[in-house]
Structures are given as structure tokens and as C-alpha cells.
């Protein structure tokens, strides 16, 4: 299906992406860790993009975090929304601004299953940036009930398929 013109400003995100080097995970309440991740951002002709993010432990290859959802653009504006479901039982809506080939998002709504692990996530911010060398960078910050907004994840991907 042809790309819907509404999501044309996000065309730079489309494709399959994998990290060359492990990403870094940090947070004040956990030991630092490394992870690998694969992203699949695609469309089916609708006025949105679909995505799947799959993270793995860098040494054991054990599946870790998984996210899937949709990326919406407000027609004629630079406002973008991510609708995300995570395997941890978290569901969130992040909204933000597109500026060229950089997308900055802040959580607007965070919900969770009743038996989600504590401390509960309260806020997430995320930035995607297409670097000059064609690699995609993602940075995620997180706040919980007991910790203020702090850097949590940082990773860079190379495109493996259009």
C-alpha cells in the first residue's frame, strides 16, 4: 500500500532497525545493564505507522522488554502521538513534537495491570533522532513513584531493511 500522506513526515523512521552495539540501561534503583534491540516500524497505508520493539539481554539473549503500538500524526501539524502496549503490563500514550528528523515525546497517560511490579512507572519521555550517518538513536527517561525523571535507556540502531 502507498504511504499515507499524513505520515510522510515520519518516513525516515520506517524500516527494520537493529543495534550494532548494545544499548545502555541505567536507573537509580537498578544495576546498569546492556541490551540489544530490534525495531520494526511499518505502515499498511492507513494514516498511522505500526511498530514493534523487541529488547534482549546482551549476553544471555533472553527476551526482555517488548512494546508494540501505533504512531499517529495530527494532520497538518508537527504533533505526534505514540500509543504503546508493553509486555510488562504498562499501557501509555506519549505525545510530542516532530522537528525535522527528531521526535521528542512525553507521556500523557500511563496505566498498568493491577499486579504490575513496583515501584510503578509514573512518567516517560523519549527522543528519536536520525543521525547524519543514517543511524537511528533512541533515548528514554523514566520516573517512578520513588524516583524523579532520570535517563533509563540509550541505544543506536542501523537500518537492516527498508
UniProtKB/TrEMBL annotation:
InterPro entries, per database record: Calycin, Nitrobindin, THAP4-like_heme-bd
UniProt xrefs under SUPFAM superfamilies: Lipocalins (SSF50814)
Catalytic reaction list: peroxynitrite = nitrate
TM ranges are none
CDD domains in alphabetical order? lipocalin_heme-bd-THAP4-like
* Residue span(s) of domain THAP4-like heme-binding: 7-159
Q: Which PANTHER family has this protein been placed in?
A: PEROXYNITRITE ISOMERASE THAP4, THAP4 PROTEIN
Question: This chain belongs to which protein, by name?
Answer: THAP4 protein
Q: Which organism is it from?
A: Polyodon spathula
Gene label: Thap4_0
Amino acid at each position: 500500500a502507498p504511504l499515507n500522506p499524513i505520515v510522510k513526515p515520519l518516513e525516515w523512521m520506517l524500516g527494520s532497525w537493529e543495534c550494532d552495539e548494545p544499548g545502555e540501561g541505567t536507573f537509580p534503583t537498578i544495576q546498569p545493564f546492556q541490551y540489544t534491540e530490534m525495531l520494526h516500524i511499518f505502515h499498511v497505508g492507513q494514516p498511522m505507522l505500526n511498530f514493534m520493539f523487541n529488547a534482549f539481554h546482551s549476553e544471555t539473549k533472553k527476551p526482555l522488554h517488548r512494546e508494540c503500538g501505533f504512531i499517529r500524526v495530527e494532520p497538518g501539524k508537527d504533533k505526534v502521538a505514540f500509543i504503546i502496549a508493553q509486555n510488562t503490563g504498562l499501557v501509555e500514550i506519549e505525545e510530542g513534537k516532530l522537528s525535522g528528523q527528531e521526535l521528542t515525546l512525553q507521556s500523557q497517560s500511563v496505566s498498568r495491570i493491577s499486579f504490575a511490579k513496583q515501584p510503578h512507572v509514573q512518567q516517560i519521555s523519549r527522543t528519536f533522532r536520525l543521525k547524519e550517518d543514517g543511524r537511528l538513536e533512541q533515548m528514554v527517561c523514566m520516573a517512578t513513584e520513588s524516583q524523579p525523571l532520570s535517563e533509563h535507556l540509550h541505544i543506536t540502531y542501523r537500518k537492516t531493511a527498508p
